[in-house]
Design brief:
seven-stranded mixed beta sheet
């Protein structure tokens, strides 16, 4: 890892340590097939009750398994957070866009069990995700935050993301137009040399 990249990652990790305010952080590890029912439960709640995801019907466990395999096959992280053996959140990095020129940029997704919001679970997950993305050669991580979620924007800001824009009325869910907020984390310190 280059000195510039190490410095950028160190800054992101310092933000992550500050954001993970719990004295008892969750155990963050690679997701396994056995975690998919818990991931399905967590994601299904967000699909049906929020606009973080623009899906309107929760996908099946089998579809989530296919998506997870696709992420892992690309060498990207797909992680879960657990407490006392129970999965309470998950996150992953997927391709930002399919074109080859975007290969160093990923999009992150983070979902937390509805009963565990505000306890540092998202920060712990996102910290590990950013560390692994940097180690895998990613330069940019893009967050596409549905409905301008104040909690999600605050989490990403604490983790070293910066605001890059809002796409207004891009989705339609729950009978209303929904915006997305775009944030970016520069794992290489915004260095633009090849």
């Amino acid at each position: 890892m280059s000195d510039v990249l190490e410095s950028a990652v160190d800054k992101v990790m310092l933000s992550a340590r500050r954001a993970t305010h719990s004295s008892d952080p969750p155990h963050v590890r690679d997701a396994m097939e056995a975690d998919l029912p818990a991931i399905h439960r967590i994601y299904g709640y967000h699909v049906l009750h929020g606009a973080a995801s623009f899906e309107e019907e929760p996908p099946s466990v089998e579809e989530l398994a296919r998506r997870r395999r696709d992420v892992v096959a690309r060498g990207l992280p797909y992680l879960v957070a657990e407490r006392e053996g129970r999965v309470i959140g998950y996150c992953y990095a997927g391709p930002y866009r399919p074109r080859a020129a975007y290969r160093y940029t990923v999009e992150n997704s983070v979902y937390i069990d509805k009963d565990w919001h505000g306890r540092g679970i998202g920060a712990a997950l996102l910290a590990e995700l950013l560390t692994r993305c940097a180690a895998n050669g990613c330069r940019r991580v893009i967050a596409v935050i549905g409905d301008n979620s104040a909690a999600s924007v605050a989490l990403h800001r604490r983790m070293g993301f910066r605001m890059i824009g809002v796409i207004e009325g891009v989705g339609f869910k729950f009978g209303r137009w929904v915006d997305t907020t775009l944030m970016q984390c520069d794992l290489d310190g915004r260095r633009l040399t090849p």
